[in-house]
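Instructor's aside before we start: the two examples that follow are unrelated to each other. I chose them only because their records fit on one page, so don't look for a connection. First example below.
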Amino acid sequence: MNSFIPATAIGANAPPPGATGDEIVRLVDVRRRFGATPALDGISLTARRGEIVGIIGRSGAGKSTLIRCLNGLEHADSGEIHIEGRDIAGLSENELQPLRRRIGMIFQHFNLLSAKTVEENIALPLKIAGVGKAERLARARELLDLVGLSDKAKAYPAALSGGQKQRVGIARALSARPALLLSDEATSALDPETTRSILALLKDINRKLGLTILLITHEMEVVRSIADRVAVIDAGRIVEEGAVWSVFANPQTEITASLLSTIRPQLPEHIAARLSQISGAEAILSVDLAGPAAQGALFAELSAALPHSFRLVHGGIDHIQNQPVARFFIAVPTRDETLPAKVTDFLSARSAWVEVLGYDD
């Protein structure tokens, strides 16, 4: 007996019998070792229906092992992996098959079959599941329209650009109307312009279908563009987690700050290189702001309260999840040695995160 739920019966990403609540993914203390090396060292994480969660980390951090545990290709040594309320840890291969159909997967290198047309690639998961030809091809045409490739149904992958191939990969991942979409470095092989178009497509699909998406990536720009929450993974552990704008505004760990360094304002190298940690004519402060504090007349207020107390060295304001997020570097004269502390106290009292980076002559 075929366990696949026909496309006509799952039009709104319907959960399986017995699923409760809005949690699509719940990981509890998941551990996986390879020999003496812990690839996952106590991962706990949730993703709710319609949420986009970015999971970011350097190469070797555990991202690939995590995604393989989520789709059942790896078995965790311990812990719980709930997909739509059912713990998949310990299930047999036969028991995993219907659950895997609730999970779509898109890959860095597309993984399309070169000998099949675009519509055949998209329809392949439905063919494997035993869906009739007319129904699966109708679903393929529907998805081609969704991803903007209606005119490519009869084309072969070799005739497509990288961005078009990834759109086909996305359509194929959606063919069985999954509740969860896993994106494994899906834009890493694409140029920046194509990456932006693919991310915009994923966000559009998320809105239209209410689809939960887990983005596995090493690129903070990907997370910044479309994620609701971000979890930073390092050495098999989640070291930081929160709303994207909050984490970007005030990273709590060194690894997060390092990953963010490519897209957050940084002190210019020629200034950073000459900083002293002992003394100098000016103290160089980093000032991080988010929300209302980033929009207000904070520096004007500072100038009024402490006249001639600083000059702006570098920085800027971004908007993430409709929240202003700012980072500035200011120089505060040290002729009054109490002035840097006064500036720090003034800004900190107004919800800024302030750090003295060093001293410059």
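Example two begins here.
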Amino acid sequence: MELKFDISKTYALALEGGGARGAYQIGAYEALTEAGVKVNAAAGTSVGALNGAMIAMNNLSIAKELWHNMRFSRVMDVDDDQMRSLMTGRLLDLNIKNARTKIKKVVKEGGFDVTPLKNLIRDTLDCESIRNSDIRLFICTHSITDRKGIELEAKNLDDESLRDMLLASAYFPAFKHEEIGGKMYTDGGISNVLPLSPLVSRGYKNIIAIRLYGLGVEKRVRLPKGTTVTEIAPHRDLGNMLNFDTEPCRKNYTLGYFDAKRMLYGLYGENYYIDRTLSEEAAYNILLEVAKSRMNGDYSLRELHTEVAKFCKESGSRGDYYDVLIAFMEKSAERLKINQMEIYSDIALLAKIGLK
């Protein structure tokens, strides 16, 4: 594969908020690291701020371990089995009496107790390493008391304040809120879910935004001349933002990794990752062969062209013949249940679906 992304430049990361979907960002960051992408800043909202803190520590293994072994009870004071039953709709597996008691307690206290998240921040993050990192960290939260969004830089905060502001940024509406320094805060997504502004206002020109499509307000940011924002974004639903179960977090991590590869190497496909080796002419000829296989008896060139045009319309693709071929390959591969989390050359995938 040929790298299609300019790694001679240095980039700043904008890490969107999105709760349990955050595993996606660290998976994407692993792919960026493997490709040699240099990062000198990260701005994060909510889970994006927590991920940014781990990125600033320059220790990918810690972030990877955390997301690969995530559980509900590492974030909230809950029973993992009960939460898993709720998230998957297996209500018959619930102890109804215990569940009702827990729900009443959560409602009475104003949300889920996030003491486990506090402990996770304390035990996982090295505040001194974050402050002294060559990757500057910016944290976005929202002050309920002051009725405004707040942007903070990690290097200006002492250990306690840094941990507090990371927690404040991640105060999802379903979490129990407590005063911090005499003020009330809530999830930074309330005013700035995709934190481009801390980076743009400080003159960063090359930005990679890792999207989660979390709830919140996308703050309008005017990009100065010469500023570019490259997105890494999921093509499929990342699931419930409170689903901190191990399996979905691992899946989202893997998805982030391959979606970043899609951006870095210019891979084709929506649900598959396809490295292009075929020309437009070769793609058209393959479509002609497919058209022949769909027709009975003799056929004219005109009829073949008509069949290809019909097939193009059926594929839903508005691109060129190669795009139509990709759409056909993906539908065929899905029908055959071919593994999606792998990079294929177009020729290799054609062989897997029975075409050469």
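The chain has a mean pLDDT of 89.
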